[in-house]
Amino acid sequence: MASGSSAIIVTVILQVLKRSGKVPWISKETGRLNAVLGVVLAGLSAAGVSYSFDFDNATGDMVAHVQLNAWAVLHWLEHSVAQWAAQQGFFWAAIRPGELLTELLAVERQRQRMGL
Fold first, then answer.
1. Planar angle of CA 71, 77, 81, nearest 5 degrees
2. What number is the average pLDDT over the span 39-62?
3. 27 phi, psi to nearest 5 deg
4. 55: enclosing H helix or E strand
5. How does pLDDT run across 12-24, given as a tens digit for each residue?
6. Cα–Cα dist 66/89, whole Å
């Protein structure tokens, strides 16, 4: 479930950045850069979800268990791909239809103004 919720959060943050204009190198027109940024963020999200945390009764501290070996890297890659797919699924299911509708309505308004 953490993967799904982080996919929604990452996708929404990317959309806010694209629409804000405060980050000029991220917009609707920078498709390839947006895709690369999505892959990088998916990898970071997957890495964050992959850690396991335990409570150490002896010290009272939170302990992160991280093992870096071939299986851990493969596991991270698997989760990165799943995370990216979840981000893409949320984008195409929840965000892109609204963008298309907005674009279609703008074209229709322009046609009406032109008397077509």
1. 145
2. 72
3. -155, 180
4. strand 52-56
5. 888 888 888 888 8
6. 29
In a domain, 112, yes or no: no
Tokens of 77: 């890659």
Alpha helix (H) residue ranges in 21-69: 31-50
104 found inside a domain? no
What is the separation, in whole angstroms, between the first and last Cα of the chain? 49
CB-CB contact of 83 with 42 (8 Å): yes
Tell me, yes or no, whether 95 lies in a domain: no
Q: What is the pLDDT of residues 56-93, one digit of tens each?
A: 677 777 766 666 667 777 777 888 888 888 888 888 88
Q: For the residues 33-48, what does the mean pLDDT come to?
A: 81
Task: Provide the domain count of the chain.
Answer: 1
Question: Is the overall model pTM greater than 0.90, yes or no?
Answer: no
Does residue 48 lie within any of the structural domains?
yes
